[in-house]
Sequence to fold (467 residues):
Amino acid sequence: MAQSPDRYVSTRGGAPATDFVEALLRGMAPDGGLYMPETWPTLSPDTWSAGRGYVAIAQAAMAPFVGDALPAGSLDRALARLVAGFAPAEVTPLVRLEDDLYLLELFHGPTAAFKDLAMQLAASLASEALAASGETLTLVTATSGDTGAAAVAAFANQPRIRLIVLHPHERVSAVQRRQMTTVEADNVLNLAVRGDFDDCQRLVKGLLAEESLRAQGRFSSVNSINWARLAGQIPYYVSAVSQLAAMGETRAPVFVVPTGNFGDAFAGIAARNMGLPVAGFVAAVNANDALARAINEGVYARKAAVETASVSMDVQAPSNFERLVFEASGRDAGMTKGVFSDFAKTGSVALPADLLAALRTEVSAVSVDEATTRAEIAHAHAAWGQVVCPHTAVALSAARGLDRSAGPVIALATAHPAKFGRDVAPVLGFDPDPPKVIRDLGDRAERFEVIGAEAEEALAAVRGFGG
Ligand SMILES: *Cc1c(COP(=O)(O)O)cnc(C)c1O
Fold:
């Protein structure tokens, strides 16, 4: 059978090929690998011509991955719901800062961070799939803030779906907590765990392994290893090139992506594989620099995670690095499996020279420290009157370090600064103005349950929720 972008194979080669719905509802492939489309579709160049709207772009970029796995009209309905939650007509406006330097603003959605763009789509598409099959789905996720907020906003009141979110008690910002806990939805359970983010992740892993919870329906996680989430991030790269064209700029841009799990950056690489003219990708990481060390030094090695101001990027084992290795190795599932099972065992893998050379043609990587991040927040305000969040500042710092003589550089702005006032205000001397979605949180009642960091407590809470 000819290869097709709506069929999915595992990066570890040990799972049967499946369709978009299975990849969406399962998340991880059954052999422990990540799903990848069998092949990349090719977009027509007029997809990114000047004046193309977000919905038309997203329809063209995503339909090949969905194929006929969902009821007719599902993607159109999902896109209509998505854009209704974004104020700007462009959905993800491209803002010119100075010659050949731009910001792509991804934070105009319901929770003021870029994760809304893909999470809203994944929720709508999952709900369409479940309505067609008659199944139910329970999702469980650990969050340090942004993922949980985006997931709650996306999945609240979706029929046939329940969402359980574990956050570390008293360790997320008040805005992030209220985004998760003030939503009125009986299908959402917020658990505040007396512990840290790693405790939350450990509890989620335990819940996912609990056979008895599977008896009633599908049971999986919402994290950035889900192919559907990556697919939902491809359109804004295409939209950025279309918006550049509308400004009269036809040279291919370099994208600088503030990176944690490498999902956002991999979506950009997917867009380039589909024909989008891109001159390069730079993954900008904070002091948690495993990815940058892998690309720059050739050894993928875990270090203890450190807490930074760009907290949503405090990741030491970026999950989507596996997709990049699979792609750069010429889709060698044996090599991919070898690298990541060695890494899981020993925490350190030397990358073969030809793999490393191929990785470096896909992406380069820069690590930005905390002092430089703060200086960049100050610079963005002084130079352009822009108030940026710490994640965006990491990308902007890396972007300003690039040679711009060959073409434009676009830094991705991933969160609204008001979500991170605690880090931005001390630098600028004032609190960032909150957008309407944050002002509207007001003093609505919060709903969450505090539990200890033990597996039995998590299980009891989930069972009490009807799991
Ligand atoms: C999640 C997140 C990132 C990192 O994205 P990845 O896809 O994990 O690389 C960057 N900035 C913000 C604000 C985020 O929430």
In short: Residues 113, 115, 146, 224, 258-264, 312-313, 391, 414-415 surround pyridoxal-5'-phosphate (CB under 6 Å). The CA atoms of residues 88 and 98 lie 21 Å apart. The chain has two domains: 90-113+233-428, 115-226+441-467.
